[in-house]
Amino acid sequence: MFSTQSVIKITPNAKDGALEDCKWPEGGEFFIPDWVYTNQAVYEREMERIFRGKHWNYVALEAEIPDAGDYKRSFVGETPVVVSRAEDGSIHVFENRCAHRGAEFCRHSRGNNKEFVCPYHQWSYDLKGNLQGIPFKRGVNKAGGMPKDFNNQEHGLKKLRVTTLRGVIFASYSEEVEPIEEYLTPEIQEEFEVVFSGKKLKLLGYYKNEIPCNWKMYHENLKDPYHATLLHSFLVVFGLLVAGNDSAMIADSKHYRHGTMASAKKEDKYASISEDNKKEMRSFHEGMRLEDERFLEFVKEFNSPWSVTMQTIFPNMIVQREMNTLGVRHIIPNGPNGMIMLWTMFGYEDDTEEMTQHRLRQGNLMGPSGFLGLEDNEAMKFVQEGVRRSTTDLNVVKLDAGATGTANSLISEAAIRGMYRYYRQIMGF
Question: What is the per-residue pLDDT for 216?
Answer without folding.
Answer: 98
